[in-house]
Amino acid sequence: MRHGLVLFAPFTGSSLVRGWNPKFYFLRADPAAELPALLRYALAHLRGRRLGFMYMEGEYFGGIEYELVERAMSGMGYELSDVFSVESSVTGGAKKEAFDAAWEAFADTQLQAVIVFGSPTNDAVKLVRRMLAGKRTAVAYLLASSVLQYLVLRVWRAAVAGGVEFVPGQVITTGTNSLAKDTQCEAIRRFQELMREYLEKSGQKYYTDKDSFFYS
């Protein structure tokens, strides 16, 4: 502000840092804006009435979203079936006994879908792994925000490699960018045109398939 600079942020993991500032521009949607998309998908598309929520206490990400989802559910006449929340390892972490007890109670509720919000930490890895590998929770859909997308997919691949059954569509994450195949968007159609032209005429030798950008 003092030097008149304009700052651009590619994305943020927490809604806490958001706020109006004429010198600070965020290029992607507020993380809290992803929550209604996940909630709508869980309730309207998956038809999951037994919906759970997971987050870690003491982080900058998850607590606000939990309050938002409670208010949204209440406004529709619903409530969350259960919530898993223990102290994050960032602030000291819950004892193993407390973590396991909270997880057992959460898993016993036989949820149909679970929304997970949080930072991409070891806590999140532990939660996603238990969610996908546990006998009582493996049948539920797992919905996560874009900040956890890479972590969730990595843990899911590892779980499948370890013997967990692969269920197409079981894991759903939000995204803040259009897919390269989404031709409904004019910018993506233009992107496809320019990429194909580059791959065919630039003289580059790394990609022989002019549509290879679809798979990266």
UniProtKB/TrEMBL annotation:
InterPro entries: GRESAG4.1/3_peripasmic_1 (IPR057399), Peripla_BP_I (IPR028082). Coiled coil: none annotated. Keywords: Receptor. Residues 33-175 form the Receptor-type adenylate cyclase GRESAG 4.1/3 periplasmic binding protein-like domain. This is Putative receptor-type adenylate cyclase. It comes from Trypanosoma cruzi.
